[in-house]
Write a structure and sequence with these properties.
elongated; mainly alpha
Length: about 130
């Protein structure tokens, strides 16, 4: 057996040395700018939060919208109501479909407007 000698060529370039920090140089980041920005952010957030709270307080004090009067008017369910432009109600034509009709003394529900339970109550002597 013959032996083969392999020769490796070595380069003569030296390896770079790692930087050696001097004792006077600090490796901690400078946070003076960050703390000032943090302070400004906290003050700004507090100011915005206070403004939002004031707006919400004012918003809660606003009057609530009233329900439509037309939904409370019982005329369309009354047996005396006729959907006629000239004479809407045979008993009280002057107050038909107005706010005064909400407390109409002559209101009598028609059979079409009554639910099954209301018909049962009327048959037993109760008024809805």
């Amino acid at each position: 057996m013959t032996q083969i000698n392999l020769v490796t060529a070595q380069t003569s370039q030296p390896l770079p040395e790692p930087p050696n920090p001097s004792p006077s140089t600090s490796t901690a980041p400078d946070i003076s700018g960050l703390s000032a920005m943090g302070f400004v952010a906290v003050v700004y957030t507090a100011a915005v939060w206070a403004a939002v709270r004031e707006m919400m307080k004012d918003w809660k004090d606003l009057p609530k919208p009233k329900p439509l009067v037309e939904n409370n008017i019982p005329c369309r369910k009354c047996q005396f109501f006729s959907n006629n432009h000239y004479l809407k109600c045979a008993v009280n034509p002057s107050i038909a479909m107005t706010k005064d009709a909400i407390e109409c003394r002559d209101y009598c529900p028609s059979e079409k407007a009554l639910t099954t339970i209301e018909r049962l109550w009327i048959s037993r002597g109760f008024r809805p």
